[in-house]
Amino acid sequence: MEFYRSHVLVCGGTPCVLEGCKGVRDALIAEVKRRGLDREVKVVETGCLGPCDLGPVIVVYPEGTLYQKVRVSDVPEIVEQHLLKGRVVTRLVGEAPQAGVVKYEEPTYLGVQERIVLRNCGVIDPESIEEYIARDGYRALAKCLTEMKPADVIEAVKKSGLVGRGGAAFPTGLKWSFTANADADQKYILCNADEGEPGTFKDRLILEGDPHSILEGMAIAGYAVGANKGFIYVRGEYVLSIERLGKAIEQAKALGLLGSNIFGSGFSFDVEIRKGAGAYVCGEETGLIESIEGKRGEPRIKPPYPGTEGLYGKPTVVNNVETIANIPPILLNGPDWFRQFGTERCPGTKVFTLTGDITNKGLIEVPMGITLRRVIYEIGGGIPGGREFKMAQTGGTSGGCLPKELLDVPMDYFTLPEHGSALGSGALLIMDDSHCIVDIAECFMRFFEHESCGKCTPCREGTARLHEIVAKIARGEGKPGDLELLDELGSVMQVSSLCGLGQAAPVPIKTMLKYFRDEFEAHINDRLCPTGTCGI
Amino acid sequence: MEPAAKSAGVCPAKVSEILAKYSRRPDALVSILHDVQKEAGYLSEEAITEIASGLDIPVSKVYGVATFYTLFSTKPKGQYIIRVCENAPCHVLGAKAIVEALEKELGIPMGGTTSDGKFTLEYTSCLGVCGVAPAIMINEAVYGNLTPERVPLILKEYK
Ligand SMILES: Cc1cc2nc3c(=O)[nH]c(=O)nc-3n(C[C@H](O)[C@H](O)[C@H](O)COP(=O)(O)O)c2cc1C
């Protein structure tokens, strides 16, 4: 494989073809060769770059300089000045030097939405690396590799205030620094795309819509911590994600954006896909590592944490898909830019998946700290069928349930826990007043009993007993004392379970007991369902 | 281990070919099981033994992994595996009625396989298509926004 210090992308979209881009491309190839640069500079024809009224357009990377209305007669000057001497040919950049290349400073507004993670989703052809590059793709990687030291990269991520979007909200920069500081002959970057939290499908859509952003983010992480190998662990059910990622990896390798000596920097990075086989607990980072090692995906005892002792015992960064998708824009635009979104304590945006009894279901990206009320009524279009809002579960099945009194709580990683819930993966399940609390609680508890891996006793036994007690109440066989038992058992599980699965399983039930206790009591004491829907 | 039908499954040469593709690395076990199952439809006792000896690891280890993950099966299954999500987002939007419609239409309970070996009906955890809940997956195809009325129409495509 060959490596190039510069790439000249020639737009091959129809409007540019009509303006003669093929001739420009051929002239560029010939001139680059004539000046003996053909081993350093690669000329590539791409899909549409956007500014079709300015064609033919070309972009020179890694700088990202866009030249417009380029004629065959301009080619020798571009090669001589820009590619040989590193000077921009100003007469060809026009008034707005980056016309048509969308900058992050001008985000696309969709109602209250703010798009950082989803910047390219639905905007570019995800199977085209050129389209990704035309939207500043791989520029952050180029910047890191050519202008920044690994420590600067970590510092920038730390300063951005980015915390992990996989649920645990651990500060990403700090996590990277543990692995960077670990002394080892081999380190790894793992992208967690196991996405098993019920109600969550954001990672799937990010991977399907913008696979290159994940490869770029992982390569940056690799550079920052000193890892040259990455794995993406994708759920086996995500057929299209796996396919698109596979294509993206091949494309990036072909352009020398993955592989050895990227941008001539001496840094090498490779990515492989690993397919999951259906186990929620494999989303837990050490379960995921066990699974990649070819074992049962049972979580390990921590410490040691993966940051110092992870995959094959080597220091390993594990990050969620959405966390990684935030990395390129943070590095490209700087931490201060990132901090203008969201809240002081929790900067940036959050991708949520809206499900349940809500008019507009789907994927949204909003500033961190937005209230549930705004999401439901301004973006989600409210509750359909003329019904009333009853509760929302935030953070997926491992999260808590909030009643209508808490509709104005800001949703971020620190405020929701104060109310017993969690932001988690960003799943928002909205439920209207037709649902019986006990019936929903049983559904939640069935999930955890099924997904507990059985390694530790508090979770294996606890999830089964929680389900058993709730199922009894649902059948009208509850007894006084059951609710206290649920509470106590839940508290024991929270402090004694090995991993987050057993620790989180009691969260939904505890919040339901806190905010909807009377409904449980009606089932136990009066053998009656206040909503009349659960068939007791 | 469940005694599996001896005739079904995958031939040793095929297993050997798959193992070679992964350079007989034990850490590729999950990928190997994916490939063998794709070939044979399920992971038979013979296949598991073959994999274990090929990777030079205990049979119990291969069996342990094969039974840990829900996408793997050590028993033969129907030609079409219908995976039904009954997690909260699907539950809230009526997954129960979908389960009942499927059971009625196929004449088998959840977990069962039709006598002609065509369909297996089973629960799955969240499929990650909750925006179109309730949802099911038939082999690799996902169907969303289901109603009990649509169930027979979808099954017709496979009958
Ligand atoms: C039972 C369980 C399931 C999890 N599932 C996922 C998952 O599907 N995706 C994910 O990114 N993190 C998941 N996590 C969190 C990971 O353990 C880990 O914190 C995360 O991948 C770290 O990445 P981040 O710092 O970028 O969030 C899960 C945790 C537990 C306890």
If you had to describe this structure to a student in words, what would you say it looks like?
A five-stranded mixed beta sheet of chain A has the order 10-9-13-11-12. Chain A has a four-stranded mixed beta sheet with strand order 2-1-3-4. The longest helix of chain A has 18 residues. Chain A folds into four domains: 105 residues, Glutaredoxin, CATH 3.40.30.10; 210 residues, NADH-ubiquinone oxidoreductase 51kDa subunit (Rossmann fold, 3-Layer(aba) Sandwich), CATH 3.40.50; 81 residues, Ubiquitin-like (UB roll); 89 residues, de novo design (two linked rop proteins). Helices cover 40% and strands 13% of the residues of chain A. In chain A, helix 5 runs parallel beside helix 9 and helix 18 runs antiparallel to helix 20. With 536 residues, chain A is an alpha/beta fold. Chain B has 159 residues and is of the alpha+beta class. Chain B has two domains: 57 residues, Orthogonal Bundle (Arc Repressor Mutant, subunit A), CATH 1.10.10; 77 residues, Glutaredoxin (3-Layer(aba) Sandwich), CATH 3.40.30. In chain B, 42% of the residues lie in helices and 11% in strands. Chain B has a four-stranded mixed beta sheet with strand order 2-1-3-4, covered by helices on one side. In chain B, a hairpin with a 2-residue loop joins strand 3 and strand 4. The longest helix of chain B is centred in the N-terminal third of the chain and has 12 residues. The two termini of chain B are 32 Å apart. The N terminus of chain B is likely disordered. Chains A and B meet through strand 9, strand 13 and helix 16 of A and helix 2, helix 4 and helix 5 of B. Flavin mononucleotide (FMN) binds next to strand 8 and helix 19 of chain A. Flavin mononucleotide binds next to strand 8 and helix 19 of chain A.
